[in-house]
Amino acid sequence: MASMPNVVDRTENVEIQKFEKVCCILNRFGRRPSGLIPILQAIQHEYQYLPEEVLTYVATSLDVPPARVFGVATFYAHFALEPKGKHVIRVCDGTACHVKQSLPILEALHKTLGTSEKNKTTPDMMFTVETVACLGACGLAPVVVIDEQVHGQVTPQGAVGLINDIRAMEALQKTAVATPAEQPATEESHV
Amino acid sequence: MNKVTQPTLTIDGKTVAIEGERNLLELVRKANIDLPTFCYHSELSVYGACRLCLVQIEGRGIQGACSTPPEPGLKIQTTTPQIREIRKIAVELLLANHDQSCPTCARSANCQLQSLAQRLGIKKVRFKSVYQPVPLDESSPSLVRDPNKCVLCGDCVRTCTEIQGIGAIDFTHRGHEVTVQPAFGKNLGDVECVNCGQCASVCPTGALTIKSEVDQVWNLLADPAKTVVVQIAPAVRVGLGECFGLKPGEITTGRIVAALKQLGFNQIYDTSFAADLTVIEEGSEFLERKSQGGTLPMFTSCCPGWVKYAEQYFPELLPNLSTCRSPQAMFGSLVKSMLPDQLKVERKNLKVVAIMPCTAKKFEAQRPELGIDSDPDVDYVLTTQELAQMIQSAGIMFDTLQPESFDMPFGFYTGAGVIFGNSGGVMEAVLRYAAEKATGKKLEQVEFQQVRGDSGLREATVMVNGAELKLAIVHGLRNARVVAEEVRAGKSRYDLIEVMACPGGCVGGAGQPVSTSRDARALRTKGLYHADKMLQLHKSQDNVFITECYAKFLGDIGGEKAHHLLHTTYQSRRRIMEDPLPLMQSQAADKLKVSVCLGTNCFLKGSQDVLNGILRHAEQNGLEGRLDVRAGFCFEKCETGPTVMIGGQHIPHCTAHKAIEELNSRIDGDNPSPQADTGPGSTDAR
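^ Those are the sequences you sent over. The predicted structure of the assembly is below.
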């Protein structure tokens, strides 16, 4: 299973829980084809993206051709067919933000994370950097959204600062988890 | 709407009566103005995407004629300078994004984009070409998908969904990246496509075309070591003429034989002979099922599109399918077992070419069960279109040929074999046999008008020997699905169901010439019934060569040898090839592999609960490190679902309880359960 992220190493049943959630999601929408889009949204919320096998399962249970499900999933920019990182960074490159120098922010983010236009996600599956056309927050331009948090009037240095904050928080969480756990994590206790 | 007088509207100054037309386009065409379209087909839903059928409506501006309902009093203009310019731009923009290798395109002669560019007087494309080549999809045995030539009219998508109820291809992505393709960007050969080719027959350009086997056949004909036998299907004789300027439905049997002789085929036979044989075998099978309480209703099995569809979507109904091979396959099998002796050639040097109105027959010919070892019973399948191309290539002036006759014995046939090409034809042919067989009396009235017709789902009741036979005749797989679902639910009232995938049956097959005439299919249907009328014999049981064939070679009808050569088996078939979904992964060397099927069939039988039961059990008993649990989508064992495989062993009709017992017996030996067994009671997920 090459395309799955490597986040399963500690609790092996993450995938099971996710699968059960898929079943719950399908039930919640009554397994009706008309619920396809909200179902896909809920699944993406769970998995961070739409894995092919899950889409096939959704198609089977809704009795919709897999090609139709794939068509819907590829139509909306919101849906991702590739796994995304734990933290998704959206840099607005709409007209207002572009004029207010959004591209230097994007470049700074790519530089600090080692990502690029083509490879949007860091190899450790921690960060994904995307651009969006407009977030409707032009008064705050340039805008960067990290996960669900909107940051206005961002500078390149400020953006890198936000990344460093997340990194620090992640490191803290990792050590906090590793100490009281039933088994110490093997290779990942310290980064 | 209460007006008694005929409502009318005005088209280009002429008054036209509204007589139930669904949209302005139908009215405009009724007024003998051929508005151009890419995306309009009267049998499909209205899409309104190509923007070519635009008309100027007084007071409303420019509207698409296909998507505007007729209203009394409308004043419509179909050609104005502005509309002409819009149409031109639309076609120019398509051309700017099109692979313009027209002379080498399979659709060169009948491409709608090409003819529209001509009609609209486009001399030059003013827009910069943005065409970026992408690879062709040649994975299907029947079709070639060339996205470089797609104009995104969606005709193929709607045909596959609305006529066939499959939806193997659809629009994907957005904006300038839109592509029509199978799910997940897979190849056509790896998905649920049944190879009916109806997508190719509605495609206005060369984006979906028939996979040609013409070169292979030329090579065969040039090889002196090979004896090449050819069979032509019933529907070919009423279609081929269209490629040579003849009217649809014109019977050209004699000229086809002459052309095939000239092309160098050694023996020229008629698939109608094998159709007669099919009638006898299938009719006897039906009578036997009926009298001995066999599985009913019985579905016909001549149509390879339907057979694959049934294998994919209704595997539990496979016992309802007649075990008879299709006429093409019966012919191949019979000829390759009888002719080597008669003609003194080795089997490997005897090659069978079939000429069919059908693209799915190419897939059928490649089925491993229809051949011996790796030598297929039918080596190559050419469609009507491909034969026309060979005739044209050889410079044979088809319309001036002197008719010739088939070789014997496999060229002798009755009218029952000929009408196989029409929807309802197989049913009628079987009735002509069964009625006589059941009563033992000579059947005088051979025509069963009640099974004929054009509707996609027809019912008929026929009295045979005092018993009432309830029949259904279906074309279009979406209609087949309706009938099959009734059978699955145990609510079907039929005895015998004829299914043909293509609209109108084989006469409307995707291998037939691309028709410019709107009533071509109806004319071809008429042509075949006419061909039946002109023959002296109308019942398969009257075919003396069939009788002789049984007496000298096959033995009893439905007997051991007949069964071996003329019948087949079916397999449940998965729709889409994909990897199973891993739910619990183990790195252990002695891990136990568990796969649970979540395909439609097993899913409906509760496989999801079985899976949840297994996972809960594993969690509660600390088996996570030992098990490798995957969810698959069809292990092709649907009859005995829910299907679970544990350590390579198949557990039919699996329940959570059965699966856990098996798990425990596998694991107990070397690793005692860490907790008291909570038992299967803890397994319910919902």
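Chain A has a mean pLDDT of 84. The domain at 10-75 of chain A is CATH 1.10.10 (Arc Repressor Mutant, subunit A).

Shout if you want it in another format.
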